[in-house]
Amino acid sequence: MPISPMCPRSIRRRPPSCWRSRATPTALVVEANGVRLDQTLGQLCERGVAQHTQPWASEALLLHRAVPARAYRFSGVWELGRTEPGDTWYVEVRQANGQYAWLSPVMIEGVG
User: Fold this and answer.
1) What percent of the chain has pLDDT over 90?
2) What angle do CA 105, 69, 9 make, to 5 degrees?
3) Helix (H, G, I), strand (E, B), or coil: what is residue 15?
4) Alpha-carbon distance 67 to 36, whole Å?
5) How far apart are CA 45 and CA 34, in angstroms?
6) By C-alpha distance, which of 14, 10, 26 is closest to 98?
7) Which residues have C-beta within 8 Å of that of residue 78, sequence separation ≥ 6?
8) Residues 71-94 pLDDT 10s
9) What is the pLDDT of residue 75?
10) What is the CA radius of gyration of the chain?
11) How many other β-carbons are positioned within 10 Å of the β-carbon of residue 76?
């Protein structure tokens, strides 16, 4: 299956299931403070966009890059071994795109 140009490089390994080319692509239109940004989901999947409301160094309107759910969801089980009430665990996850996610602290209430 060919790689869709509508999907970011970080998830091109899997066939895209949500943002394939369509006769009428889905678009996001935002208007604020006299600025209008009009981007298709395919465009936002490739990159975010920004537009200043006034000349340089003014407020800006920003649309971040769109990320499909399969690129940020995870489900799994960790075996922690022996735990004691009051133990604290910190979870840090390195994502495929090099960014990090974390959850802390996780308080242990019972003996495992």
Assistant:
1) 20
2) 110
3) coil
4) 22
5) 25
6) 10
7) none
8) 777 788 878 788 888 888 888 888
9) 80
10) 20
11) 5
What is the residue-averaged pLDDT of the chain?
76
Weakest-pLDDT range from 25-29, 60-64, 74-78: 74-78
- pTM of the full structure: 0.51
User: Which of 51, 23, 24 is closest to 36 using CA atoms?
Assistant: 51
Cα 61 to Cα 51: distance, rounded to the nearest angstrom: 5
CA-wise closest residue to 6 among 46, 37, 38, 66: 46
Place of tokens 């678009």: 27
pLDDT for position 12? 39
Closest CA to 58 of 35, 29, 31, 28: 35
Q: Are 26 and 43 in contact (CB under 8 A)?
A: no
CB-based burial label for 42 (10 Å; 0-12, 13-18, 19+): buried
